[in-house]
Amino acid sequence: MFLSLPLVFSHLFLQSPNFSEFETVTMSPHEKSNLFMFFNTACAPNVIQSIIVDERKDSRWGRFGLHARMDIEPGQELCWDYYCSQEIGSMEEGFRFECACGARNCRYTQGKWAEHDKKMKESEKRKKIRKEIRRDRSYDGQSINSTRVMETSKRTVSNILSSVKALWNSLVRN
């Protein structure tokens, strides 16, 4: 499915001999001033980003495009989402800030970060517990499977019954 939205902005950004490999493209106003210094982030953006490959020149050349998701009034701030991912974990590095976009589905608020951190700590605890359980289930470095446990239990019960019979027989004889 091809998304056909009006192009708001297009910028020549990349000539790379390894365009087929995954690369992180940074457009920072600190390195080289460009129009991106006037853009802001929002969890419900009015523009979306895309990479437009120009096959006429070379497949290694691309353009970064911003497409309008809705009607944009003159003077209205252009906002795009730094990450399109719904996973907050993918945004953790580098984007831990208080968001002021006001969207109902805001993913960058401190409350969300605290919730994410709590889930990560719980996940680490569960991993540690599972590791301890696996370690406790091992005997002489070998995992104890249920068949081995059953055989051991049967022998133990059999030994107990033999001991009880021997004790009973000795009591009956006396």
From TrEMBL:
Gene Ontology MF: a single term: metal ion binding
Descriptive protein name: SET domain-containing protein
Compartments (UniProt record): Chromosome
GO biological process, any: methylation
Record keywords: Chromosome, Metal-binding, Methyltransferase, S-adenosyl-L-methionine, Transferase, Zinc
Residues annotated as domain SET: 28-82
PANTHER family in UniProt: HISTONE-LYSINE N-METHYLTRANSFERASE SET-23, HISTONE-LYSINE N-METHYLTRANSFERASE SUV39H
Presence of the UniProt keyword Cell membrane in the record: no
Pfam families from the UniProt entry: SET
One GO CC term on file: chromosome
